[in-house]
Amino acid sequence: MKYIDEYRDINVVTALSKRIHEVAKHSWNIMEICGGQTHSIMKYNLTSFLPPKISLIHGPGCPVCVTPLEKIDKALALASNSRVIFTSFGDMLRVPGSQGDLLKAKANGADVRTVYSPLDALKIATDNLSKEIVFFAIGFETTAPVNALSVIQAQKQNIKNYSVLSSHVLVPPAMELILSSPDNRVNAFLAAGHVCTVMGYRQYHSIAARYKTPIAITGFEPVDVLQGILSVVTQLENNTALVKNEYARIVTEEGNENAQETLWRVFETSDQTWRGIGTIPKSGLRIRKEFQAYDAELKFDLTGIKSTESANCIAGQILQGKLKPYQCNEFGKACTPENPKGAPMVSHEGACSAYFRFQNI
Ligand code: SF4
Hints:
361 residues, Rossmann fold, 2 domains, 15 helices, globular, binds iron/sulfur cluster
């Protein structure tokens, strides 16, 4: 299989579906970690290829969705500083903070710019020496290496007017939090293929063994997702709990060691708040002492910001797989992709957005 179309081939999808029906004898709840997988499940209506015994639970793998409200409010405070050019990936501009979003700040005169890479932000810094350039460094293990690289480059090139507002999250501690919850319903995980592309999957063996929970490293196309489901259902029915790499065309056990080396040079693990979930020990990344000159939270005075979450948004429960988007009173009414009330309706990887766009409910 070389081309994307082959991973959407209805004959292969149907054959996998048939096999899952044959194998599944009991009821199982399977959580797909990644918002990209949720998007694929909704877009291709993959639940219609599964027996009713198999339930898919959407996990917290949308980086935009889990960026804590306090960080969005800090981003808004930085953007409103006339000395600052605030740079960010486009998705973050529409995520609601306590008082509006970055797009509204831009409309009100803040210099907020969309970039496709932190290296673009670094270029803005060299072109605007009289300004402070801040990059909003969010995401999972996938984006952390290139964000780290921008800091290394800034230090190497002695660029002093660049810093990052960092809000990185790590997947394995979130999986452990879910599995150790007293009301956990998850029997197996589809792990996020792109995170494993960077980090490998050595870390997952101990999780699978400790919680007796099968994990399949899974890609994003319909065939990938169904292959991952078949893999974990087969294990569940055979009472095994191993890590299986079902995305071997991209992922290796050790991952991208150069990217990991770059990441760990700049960052170290720290406790991290996940929006709607709370603080998860050692689930985030903070900038190491050697690079603190590039930490926007230390460079600027961001004290005294008060953050207030919307009372009507149930994103936290959706991100933990406890409720579905259509169970939110705001879904499709007050909250739509054009007028999002919470982060999961903003990002394409957000569950609310995926349900709204594809409406397979
Ligand atoms: S539909 Fe909107 S308000 Fe409701 S949980 Fe999703 S993002 Fe929040």
